[in-house]
Amino acid sequence: MISFLWAEDKNHVIGYKGQLPWTLPNDMKRFKELTIGKTIVMGRRTYESFPNGPLPKRLNIVMSRNPNYQVSDPAVLITDVSELSKYEDDSEIVVIGGSKIFNTFKDIVDRLYVTRIDHEFDGDVKMIYLDYSQFKLIEKKSGTVDDKNLYPYVFETYQRK
Ligand SMILES: NC(=O)c1ccc[n+]([C@@H]2O[C@H](COP(=O)([O-])OP(=O)(O)OC[C@H]3O[C@@H](n4cnc5c(N)ncnc54)[C@H](OP(=O)(O)O)[C@@H]3O)[C@@H](O)[C@H]2O)c1
Question: What's this protein's function (predicted)?
Fold first, then answer.
């Protein structure tokens, strides 16, 4: 099964200057819970946004069209979506962005995990258009706002109909 996992603001912004536009520890926690032990697929730019290289306890697959692009062990590089089949097993493949990568998988994604942040941020990358009429909302939960999680946000999960 292929899933998308991302967070977006009121205007569908997901990134700014190569990083996330916000700090939201509870979303990071959900990200970890939903990806540990699974395979994550990301674009080269998203990979470069990680300060410490590949994320631990997950198979990190990085996409770049440059076959000479160096990823740190134990991450693996693929240059085309067709190479993903080598890494497919029974576990969930979680596509974590950015927008170019979401676009590549949008017709075959089965599940969407989205965090909707009720705030407007400066941004230079937006989430792609998704046809939600093809998906059913199966879970919705408001997040806790506190001194470390300053903006209202909702976690939603959709399954392809
Ligand atoms: N809010 C969120 O949930 C979230 C999630 C992810 C990322 N982000 C943010 O979004 C920004 C990065 O996103 P982005 O859209 O600019 O970049 P990206 O999708 O992470 O990476 C784009 C790169 O991926 C490679 N690529 C794309 N399609 C490919 C394909 N079909 N086959 C092989 N390689 C392919 C290319 O690398 P080469 O140029 O090397 O060929 C391309 O330049 C950052 O600001 C990041 O923090 C936010």
Answer: Key enzyme in folate metabolism. Catalyzes an essential reaction for de novo glycine and purine synthesis, and for DNA precursor synthesis.
The answer, yes or no, to whether any atom of ligand 1 lies below 6 A from the CB of 123, is no
* Amino acid sitting at position 59: L
Report whether residue 100 contacts ligand 1, using a CB cutoff of 6 Å. Answer: yes
Q: What is the pLDDT of residues 26-55, one digit of tens each?
A: 999 999 999 999 999 999 999 999 999 999
Cis status of the peptide bond prior to 51, with omega within 30 of 0: no
For residue 149, what pLDDT band results from cuts at 50, 70 and 90? very high
54 in contact with ligand 1, CB cutoff 6 A? no
Q: Which atom of ligand 1 is closest in space to residue 6's alpha carbon? A: 3
Average pLDDT, the chain: 97
* Whether residue 106 has its Cβ less than 6 Å from ligand 1: no
Is 89's pLDDT higher than 90?
Answer: no
The pLDDT of residue 67:
98
**Would the pLDDT of 88 be above 90?**
no
- Domains, the chain, in order of start with CATH, read 2-160 (3.40.430.10)
Burial class (CB in 10 A: 0-12, 13-18, 19+), 37: exposed
CA 127 remoteness from chain centre = 10
Cβ(83) to ligand 1 under 6 A? no
